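Marked as duplicate of an earlier ticket. Keeping the data here for the record.
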Amino acid sequence: MKRRVYLVEDHPVTREGLRALVDKTADLAVVGESGAGADVLDGIERTSPDVAVVDITIAGTDGIELTKQIRAVYPDLPVLVLSAHAETVYAERAVRAGARGYVMKQEPPGVLLAAIRSVLDGDLHLSDAMRDRVVGSYLTSSAPASSAVDELTDRELEVFRHFGHGMTTVQVADVMMVSPKTVETHRVHVKQKLGIETTNEFVQRATLWVSQNDA
């Protein structure tokens, strides 16, 4: 019997390609898919998948927060995060959110299929370098962060990233489904943690970070 895969990807062309890739295998089949975060939990309930493949960037939320939600409601459902964004930025956050693996979209198709099978078998799928970093961080609480951005919470990083993509406070609030006041609170915390004093510097730092890590 084929093992059941649920896809969460907000780009229809990419989602169709992922579905075709999975469905042509002998042991896997896509049983459901979502293009927005609001649909995911209901979709999982309807289809009872064996694994969820979640894009890091998804309409209405982000893959890290969505992974937390999925794991809270379906603790036995393994989640594999799929992303075009830097592994060094998001992989450890994904694992801490409950994901069983992280795969870059730039990897060959066979790597994604192997990752799906790996998390289905109960293993953790990361690159060798990232696995060493994640294991090390769990072994010692004093492991140093590789950059100040690593000290941001998941929601703070999400705010930082959105501003780096040129969004306004209102636009960020709409995407994150929170109030503008909440966005401003997160921004204040980010500025404090990164040692930023002005709004212009905040936007410049966010834009530079996005160009280097999240383009």
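See parent ticket for discussion. The mean pLDDT is 86.
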